[in-house]
Design brief:
This protein is of the alpha/beta class. Helices cover about 40% and strands about 15% of the residues. It is built from 14 helices and 10 strands. The strands form 2 sheets. It has a 5-stranded parallel β-sheet, sandwiched between helices. Helix 3 runs parallel beside helix 4 (about 110-120). The longest helix is centred in the C-terminal third of the chain and has 21 residues, at about 315-335. About 50% of the residues are buried.
């Protein structure tokens, strides 16, 4: 009897007993059915809507090209209204009634926290989830859940290192949401600044998503003598900070989280007011001249023109994130061949080597393994 490699044995233990070749829920001779919850309504609709629309459009494009290994991809994308309980109920429906093969790209931390225990208990692939909170992605606790977007904590580390090297005398302030995003940034900035964190960070302010303005937090940062502000909050809060830094008498250097580092958010503040803001991003910004007409970005630009004509470029940053994740999902299905058991789908999702989806900045790779469940861990300032 031929023995299994050690890595395969480890994977088999993590993912449970192998499924039979005929045990392929959501798969027929002509299609593969995937499911997701997406916040098309609610407080995050402006972000989630373009992501979900791009993912659905990408699979329409793939189907127009003949599908994957002869099968069309059907993505059932349901609106959870940014409600975790609703996300769980919809996910159970898709798994138990609609018999999807896998859950793909579910949006936001609260919803993913709600659904991942259920999906992992039942051995359902939970792939390329749309949250930058890496504590949600624990391969030992949740071996069926894998990340899909850059990680907030690592981005904050990059900002911290930049400040150490380029602004060693800076007085740093944090303006962060009172949520997981804000907590991730606090942790990452601490890791990036290391021992200097407690001397360089002179003010840490938090704000509720429902706050009508940032006046109190902004004043507190000013009064603390801050000259570099790291902003990690919702796009609305970020846009308000950009306006404040530009229009007021106090002009600190702003660092903005990648979820808000899009042309749509900059336009919300006023593109002229965003000049000088520092971001760390893994994705191309197709609104910038160096990428707008570049061969690197051409496939995405052509895709938007043909499959997302109503969206065009107003929210291209979020559409691009969905486009990249959909490419990853398509690559996993290609690697599966005709073995589309849930176990093999998960194994292939942890075996993306030298994969370069269109939309990532050149030099930044998308890589997974059985010990690496965070595909994107690099960013460019």
């Amino acid at each position: 009897m031929k023995s299994l490699p050690a890595a395969a044995l480890v994977a088999a233990c993590l993912l449970g007993p192998p499924a039979g070749a005929t045990e392929m829920p959501g798969v027929t001779a002509t299609e593969i059915k995937l499911g997701q919850t997406m916040s098309y309504s609610g407080v995050a609709a402006a972000i989630a809507g373009p992501i979900g629309a791009a993912e659905q459009a990408y699979f329409r494009m793939i189907d127009d090209q003949g599908g994957i290994n002869g099968r069309k991809i059907v993505l059932e994308s349901l609106d959870d209204g940014f409600n975790a309980e609703k996300a769980l109920a919809l996910t159970k429906k898709m798994v138990e009634q609609d018999q999807v093969a896998a859950i793909f790209s579910p949006f936001a931390t609260p919803q993913n926290v709600a659904i991942e225990p259920y999906l992992n208990t039942h051995g359902i692939p939970d792939l390329f989830i749309m949250t930058g909170d890496d504590w949600v992605i624990d391969r030992k606790k949740y071996p069926w859940t894998i990340g899909g977007v850059p990680v907030f904590r690592i981005e904050a580390q990059i900002f911290g290192r930049f400040i150490l090297v380029n602004m060693p005398t800076a007085k740093v302030g944090l303006l962060r949401g009172r949520d997981q995003l804000g907590d991730s940034y606090r942790t990452g900035l601490g890791q990036g600044l290391g021992a200097q964190y407690f001397t360089m960070v002179v003010k840490d302010t938090q704000i509720e998503e429902s706050a009508s303005n940032i006046d109190a937090q902004w004043q507190a940062l000013h009064d603390a003598g801050v000259n570099a502000v790291v902003v990690a909050a919702s796009p609305r809060i970020v846009a308000a900070a950009i306006v404040k830094a530009h229009d007021g008498d106090w002009h600190p250097q702003l660092f903005v989280d990648f979820a808000s580092a899009t042309s749509a958010v900059m336009a919300m503040a006023g593109a002229d007011k965003a000049v000088g803001v520092i971001t760390a991003n893994s994705y191309l910004d197709t609104s910038q001249p160096q990428w707008a007409n570049s061969p690197v970005a051409k496939p995405f630009n052509d895709f938007v023109t043909k499959y997302l004509p109503k969206q065009q470029w107003k929210d291209a940053g979020y559409s691009l994130a969905g486009y990249v994740s959909a490419q990853a999902m398509a690559q996993v299905l290609r690697q599966c061949g005709d073995d589309l058991t849930r176990r093999n789908i998960m194994l292939q999702a942890t075996n993306l080597k030298d994969f370069h989806p269109v939309g990532l900045i050149p030099g930044i790779t998308y890589f997974t393994s059985r010990t690496k469940y965070l595909p994107i861990v690099e960013a460019a300032l």
